[in-house]
Write a structure and sequence with these properties.
alpha/beta, binds pantoate, 11 helices, 6-stranded parallel sheet, 3-stranded antiparallel sheet
Length: 282
C-alpha cells in the first residue's frame, strides 16, 4: 500500500489511474470501514482510503482531542484488505490556512436530526469531503466514493452536494455492518464499558420496534407518529439512555412521512458518555 502524506504525493500516485474508488474515513478502522473498502475495490481501477480526523465537524465540547488515533493498526488493516493507496494528510496539509471558505449544505436537509443536535456538523463534513474529493478526483473524468448507510443523513447530504455541484463522482452507499447482537459498528463503540456494550443493542431494537409500530398504523400514520416516537424515547430513557431523537422519516428527504411513503427510522442517544446513532429502512 502506498501512503501519501501530501497533496502532491497523492496526485503523483493517482496519475496513471482513470477511476479511483475512494473511502474517506477518520481512522480507528473497524469491519464497517473494511466492508466499504472491499466494495470500493470492485468499483474502480485503484482503491484509495483516507484517514483524517476533521476538526471542522466537531463541536468544542465533543471528542476531537480524544478521538482514537490508531495509525499502526489502521495501516495493517488496510494493507491486509489490499488497499492500494492511503491518503493521510496532517492538519497543516489539508487546512494550511483557517478554512474560512466552507461548503454550506441545504439547511432543510442538514439542520434537522444530527444537524439540530450537532450544529454545523454537516458544514464541517461537506467542507472536508469536498476538499478530499478535489484532492482525489481532480482531473478524473469519473470517480466513485463509498459511504456507509450507518451515517444515513451524511450520505444524503453528500449525494445532494455531488448533484448540485455536478461533480463527476458516483456515490455508492453500503449497508450498515452490525455485531452479531445487532449493534451497528462504530468507532465510538470502543468508548462503551462492558455493561454499556451489552445495553447498546437496545438502540437498534427500539428503532426496529418504532418502525414496526409506524408501519402498523396505516393511514393514521401522521397523527399517530408523534405518540409512537415519544413512547420509543421514553422506553430508552427508562433504561438509562438520554435520547436526542428517535423518529420515522421518509427516505426521500428525511421529512415527516405520509402513509405509503418509503420510510427510514433514525435515532441518536447517549449511553453514559457515549453518543450512538443508528437507522433502519422500513
Ligand atoms: O463518516 C466519517 O467518518 C466522516 O464524517 C468523513 C466522511 C470521513 C468526513 O470526515
Amino acid at each position: 500500500m502506498l501512503i501519501a502524506r501530501t497533496l502532491v504525493e497523492l496526485r503523483q500516485h493517482l496519475q496513471r489511474f482513470e477511476r479511483p474508488a475512494f473511502v474517506p474515513t477518520m481512522g480507528n478502522l473497524h469491519e464497517g470501514h473494511l466492508t466499504l473498502l472491499r466494495h470500493a475495490k470492485t468499483l474502480g481501477d485503484l482503491s484509495v482510503a483516507s484517514i483524517f480526523v476533521n476538526r471542522l465537524q466537531f463541536l468544542p465540547h465533543e471528542d476531537f482531542d480524544s478521538y482514537p488515533r490508531t495509525w499502526a493498526g489502521d495501516c495493517a488493516k488496510l494493507e491486509a484488505e489490499g488497499c492500494d493507496l492511503l491518503f493521510a494528510p496532517d492538519e497543516a496539509e489539508l487546512y494550511p490556512q483557517i478554512q474560512t471558505f466552507k461548503v454550506q449544505p441545504d439547511p432543510v436537509l442538514a439542520d434537522i436530526l444530527e444537524g439540530q443536535f450537532r450544529p454545523g456538523f454537516f458544514t464541517g463534513v461537506s467542507t472536508v469531503v469536498m476538499k478530499l474529493f478535489m484532492a482525489v478526483f481532480a482531473g478524473k473524468a469519473k470517480g466513485v466514493a463509498v459511504f456507509g448507510k450507518k451515517d444515513y443523513q451524511q450520505l444524503m447530504v453528500i449525494r445532494q452536494m455531488v448533484r448540485q455541484f455536478a461533480l463527476p463522482i458516483e456515490i455508492s452507499g453500503v449497508d450498515t455492518c452490525r455485531a452479531p447482537d445487532g449493534l451497528a459498528l462504530s468507532s465510538r463503540n470502543g468508548y462503551l464499558s462492558g455493561d454499556e456494550r451489552a445495553e447498546a443493542v437496545q438502540l437498534s431494537m427500539a428503532l426496529s420496534q418504532l418502525g414496526l409500530a409506524a408501519l402498523a398504523t396505516g393511514a393514521a400514520l401522521p397523527s399517530q407518529l408523534p405518540l409512537l416516537e415519544a413512547e420509543a424515547m421514553q422506553t430508552l430513557r427508562q433504561r438509562g439512555w438520554q435520547p436526542d431523537y428517535l423518529t420515522v422519516r421518509r427516505r426521500q428527504d428525511l421529512q415527516a412521512p405520509q402513509a405509503g411513503d418509503a420510510m427510514v427510522v433514525l435515532g441518536a442517544a447517549k449511553l453514559g458518555k457515549t453518543r450512538l446513532i443508528d437507522n433502519l429502512e422500513v
